[in-house]
Specification:
This protein is α/β, with parallel strands linked by helices. It is built from ten helices and five strands. It has helices at 4-16, 20-32, 37-58, 63-88, 109-120, 134-144, 156-159, 162-171, 189-195, 204-215; strands spanning 96-101, 124-127, 148-152, 179-183, 199-200. The structure holds 5-hydroxybenzimidazolylcobamide. 5-hydroxybenzimidazolylcobamide is lined by residues 42, 46, 49-50, 52-53, 56-57, 63, 66-67, 70, 99, 104-111, 113-114, 150-152, 154-157, 181-186, 201, 203-204, 207. Belongs to the methylamine corrinoid protein family.
Length: 216
């Protein structure tokens, strides 16, 4: 029987090889073998994606490689999502969470994983998509009255806009009605503290743990 570490390592390698078909096959094998699919996403697929990102930063890989790796990762997540959803079962809604990738930023893989995991955990999730205008977050708080409004930012140039969500919620007089959550690779607890965000989530599991605590 295949071990978790082995299948994670193979998934990581397949993302780094930009091999969608291999990623899909590995994910199907993982489902068959009943290994932990959350670990497969975080310690396998995401680890491969991060390695590609590091090599892109170092100049040893280029944008087409990043695109190909993200397609391979997305292919794997698509295979695993129904299993994750089935694991969630029919649970009573713990409340609403609105999430989106911030204005100017089209990175959506991490936000999509967070949205899926929150759904599985029993939250009703409203996904605003990517490149979401700050005013749209504010309007969504007015419309949906969520427990948490989450933003994702993958670039140092776009994470600064997370501050504007705080400011515009205050200007609209609704900051106290909702908890704000920030995440994305360059985002840290220090950044969340600096801008006054209520929740910093390092990854999807952390987002679920912290939103669960907020819902209690
Ligand atoms: Co892109 N990109 N990229 N990229 N990209 C990054 C982010 C760089 C860091 C790469 C680098 O230089 N090392 C860099 C940003 C540098 C900076 O900070 N300024 C960068 C750049 C520069 C760019 C372009 C500008 C490149 C160009 O066109 N010249 C361009 C951006 C255009 C734009 O947005 N306006 C671009 C484009 C792309 C794509 C399209 C090729 C592709 C995205 C595909 C897609 O998302 N549909 C892409 C990718 C894949 C990456 C890297 C390699 C991986 C991102 C990723 O998906 N990681 C990334 C390098 C990196 O981050 N290591 C690189 C995997 C996911 C699972 O992790 O961190 O997103 P995550 O999410 C976690 C976690 O953060 C947390 O939970 C998630 C799950 O565990 N989380 C939240 C995320 N959001 C949350 C929200 C919450 O409320 C709570 C928790």
């Amino acid at each position: 029987m295949v071990s978790q570490d082995e299948i994670n390592a193979r998934a990581k390698a397949a993302v780094m090889d930009f091999d969608d078909e291999a990623v899909e096959e590995i994910c199907e094998e993982a489902i068959e073998a009943k290994v932990d699919v959350v670990s497969l996403i975080q310690d396998g697929l995401t680890a491969g994606m991060n390695e590609v990102g590091d090599q892109f930063e170092q100049g040893t890989l280029f944008l087409p490689h990043v695109i190909a790796a993200s397609e391979a990762m997305s292919a794997g997540v698509a295979v695993l999502t129904p299993v994750l959803e089935a694991q969630g079962g029919a649970v009573k809604s713990k409340g609403k969470i609105v999430i989106g990738t911030i204005e100017g930023d089209i990175h959506s893989i991490g936000k999509d994983i967070v949205a899926t995991m929150l759904k599985i955990a029993g939250f009703q999730v409203v996904d605003l998509g990517r490149d979401v205008a700050i005013a749209t977050y504010v309007d969504a708080v007015k419309e949906h009255k969520p427990l948490v409004i989450g933003s994702s930012a993958l670039m140092t140039t776009t994470m600064v806009l997370q501050m504007q969500i705080e400011e515009q919620l205050k200007e609209a007089g609704i900051r106290d009605t909702v908890l704000t959550m920030v995440g994305g690779a360059p985002v840290t607890q220090d950044w969340a503290d600096k801008i006054g965000s209520d929740i910093y989530a390092e990854n999807a599991t952390d987002a679920v743990v912290k939103c669960n605590a907020a819902a209690e």
